[in-house]
Amino acid sequence: MLPNTVQTLIAAETIAGVTCQLDSSIKRVALFTEAFLPKVDGVSRTALLTLNYLQRSGREVIVFAPSPTIPAIGATPIYGVPSLWMPFYAEVRVTPPWPLILPVLRDFKPDLIHLFSPAGLGALGMAAGEWFDVPVIANYQTDLPAYAQSYGYGLLRQPMIDFLRFIHNGCHLTLAPSRTTLAELRGWNFHRLRLWERGIDSERFNPAHADPTWRARLLAGRDPSRLLVLYVGRIAKDKHLTTLHTLAHEPGVALTLIGGGDYQAELQAQFADSDAHFTGALFGDELTRAYAAADVFVFPGPEETFGQVVLEAMASGLPVIVTDRGGPQTMVHEGHNGFICAVDDGAAFTDRVRLLRDNPLLRVQMSRAARTYASARPWIAVMQQLERYYQEAQHLHQRLRDQRLRANRKRSA
Question: Model's pTM, two decimal places?
Answer without folding.
Answer: 0.92
